[in-house]
Each structure stands twice: as structure tokens, then as C-alpha cells.
Amino acid sequence: MRWLGIGLVIASLTGCASTGVAPWERDVLAKPEMQLDAQPLDVAFDDHIYFSKEASSGGRGFGGGGCGCN
Amino acid sequence: MAAKDRRIGVALAAATCTLLGSGKAAPAQAADDVNAWDFETALLYYGENDSRVRDISLSALAKRLFEDEKHLDLSLSVDTLTGASPSGAIATGSVQTFTSPSGREVYSTPANEIPLDDTFLDTRVAVSAHWTQSFARLYTGSAGASFSTEYDYTHIGADLALSRDFKQRNTTVSAAVAFSQDDIDPVGGAPQALSQMLDVGDLTNRGGSQSKDVLDVLIGMTQVINRTTLLRINYSFSDSSGYLTDPYKFLSVVDPISGDTLARSPPPGTQGPDGLYRFENRPDSRTKHGLFLEGKHAFGSKVLDLSYRYMTDDWEIDSHTLDARLRWPLGSFGYVEPHVRYYSQTAADFYRVNLTAAEPLPQFVSADSRLGDFDAITVGVKFGREMRHGAEWSARIELYQQNANVPDALLIGNQFGRERSLDLNAIIAQISYRFGL
Which of B177, B192, B226, B417 is the most buried (most CB within 10 A)? Predict the structure, then answer.
């Protein structure tokens, strides 16, 4: 059931003809704050902290790991 | 238009690729100037209540852009950790004495307090390097390596990532794989699984160094929804094998009726534990699956970042993480960004509060509170101010609080009247400076 849900999300993202923009409509998307990796050091620090204090890690990237803190 | 489109497409691909590949992406303000360097530096303080763990970390990311959108990303991080962390033993009505991890001395915990091991002190240095380039017009590839070392732990890893753009670069599909090999060389040697804590100078239950391998696979997709909305979905798989036990964690062995830790006396003239404690043991493999969803939406000049992560593993730990950030411009003063994060996890199937003297030893058991059932919340705010030539100062402060849920079913006798768990309150403070050369 879980994987069916994931499949539906992916299908809805890729299958909908109305998604996406033309090249000349990317003014907002081009802003630095709209980038998915806008705050790399914050993300890296957070991954490291939460990897050390919680049982789950990663997801966004390979985040965390590489230390003896967990 | 075409150049701008291509730049955005590459930025999207690189964002996904780099995040997939390393978890430490390059500075966001990619310089348009070829052969220029971009730097992002930060100083982080992490401090827990009651003088527990403290971490001061200095990190730097450097990015150099070459011709044809190739770039090199380097990172360096240095951590200094001190403080005390819960050992896994329970509180009792009297002073408790333990042998330190080195096996050379003892330390004590006052009555009615949850024992903390205060011998924790370490410095960690971590470096990584990644090369990213686009090829065949719509593809972006990345390869990297990472290394870290601390007193009792060494990590070496490598990763590869590939992404392809579709539909006028509105869709980016990525796949990445990482492998790491870590060596663990615990202070005093790794204790034999479930063995009893011994007296000072007796290292007969200690072994040599240990190792573990971790394979990670990530498959992701980024989709532009409209002019102001972007979505990302990642599936992650992680397989760890080898020594996954924490060599410094142990459990109290208690009377099955009273719930009090069984007493013992070191031989005359010898220092050692005054109770019965056994070192934990975890399975030697762990498989995790994760689903990560993130959306970014611009409301005028404000930007909302929402994400959700679900993770599940074969230790029966399920977790949910919700994260929200809202970047709110303050005109020429810069911006403010409130942040809220909620996390909740279930306990590992081998998590226990203690062992009882009446039972046969289980195959796997741990009292590490990080494997228990708990909720956590983070609340914080960040301020940023842009300077000339694209440089930016920022500072953030956050409060992190964990609330453990120790069910009655795990407790025995007198344990009901004592402290069950240590709630965790921590401050995260960070200042950052980003600049180009």
C-alpha cells in the first residue's frame, strides 16, 4: 500500500501535462533562496546533529554517518 | 533565454545530484564567473543541558567553477566534543560506581540519578571532495570521496551520482550510490557482546577493533510544478553490516521483583563496579528504507520550504519527520527565517530498560535511549544579511528538545518511583559567512 502511494505521487508529478514552466517563466525559480540546496552548511550540521541523537538519518541525501557518535 | 534556462536546469540537476551524492552540497550562490571560488564558512555551537554533550564545530565549503559548468566542491569540518552521555544504566536508590570505558579507572553516579559516562572527549576531522560535470547536454554526473577520523573511529567513503533532465528541464531524475567502510577502535577495546562489566585492570572481556560497511542508494526526482513551486521526492535505501553496537553502552541487571540493580563487590584492594552491568549487543546488519518529500513555494518574495520524511528499518524503528522553514525578506536589512521541526520514532524491537537476573540473556539488547520511543521538536530562527558582491552573513539559534516515552510495561518494582529517562534540551547556535574570490 505504501509503495502504491509513492507510485501515485510520482505518477501525478510526471504525468500531469500542466506541470512545468516555459524557459522564460523561470525568474522566481532562479532565485538563490528557491534552490533546493540553498543552505548546504545548515543541512550538513543538522544531519550530523540528528544522526547523533536520533535513530533515523538521511533521506534528503546520504546525510550524517561517518562518525562514531551513533 | 536559452542560457538562463540551461543555467537553471544545470543548477537543479546539480542541486539534486550533489544532495544525493554527499549530503553536503556546494555553496548555493554558484558563481557565474569561471575559475572563481565560492566559500561558505560556519562556526556551530551545540550544547546540551546539565553539562552533557558539547560540540564546537568549524566547517568550510569551497566551490570552484570551471568551463562547461564543471565544478569541484571541497569540504572541511573540525569538531571538538566534550561532556557526558547516558550509559544505558538505570537510576537506583544509592550511589553507583562503574568501570570507565578504558578499564583503568572508576566513576560514580549519585543516588536517584540516571548514570552518565563523563569520560567523553573527542576531536573529529572530516574532509570530502566532489567533482560534478554535465555531459551529453541533459546529463549531470558527480563523483566524490569522503574521509573522517576521530580518536576511536575512522571513515572512508565514495559516492557516484547521475541525473538527467526531461521536459524542458522541468523534471530531473537522479540516482546515486555511496559506499563507506568504517573502522571502530573503542577505548579499552570493544567489549564482548553481553559480557559483564569487569573490575579496573581486567580487560579479559575486551576485543580488538571492529568495522562496518554501509551501502546507500538514493533515487530522486525533482519537478517544477509552476513558476513558484518546486517539488522533490527521494527514495533511499541503506544497508549496514558489521559492528553496529555502541561499545560504550550497557544495561543494568536487576532483581525481577524489586527492579533494583543487583549488587556486587569488587575483590579487596580492587576498584570496580558495585552493581551488575552487561554490555549491549545489536544485530550485525540493518536495512533502512526512506521516503523524503520536499516542496518549495514562493509567496511573493517569501519562500516556504516544507518537507516530510518517513523511515522504516528492520530493527522495527519507524520515524516521521516534518520540517518547515519560511524565509521572510526584511527589505534592505536582509531576511529572517523561522524554522520548526518535529520528529517522532518508535523503539527498536530489542530496546529494553534493563535485564533481569531471572531471564536467559537475549540475543540482542540495548538500553540506548536513541533507540527508544521518543518525540523531538526543534524551534529556531535564522537572520541573514546580504553584503556587497554576493557575500552574506547569517546567524541562527535553535532549541532542540527530546521527550522520551518509556512505557510502564518496561519497568519493574521500585523503578516506577524513580527517574525513567533523561529528557534532552539542547541549544544550536551558528554563525555563517559566505563569500566569493
Answer: B177
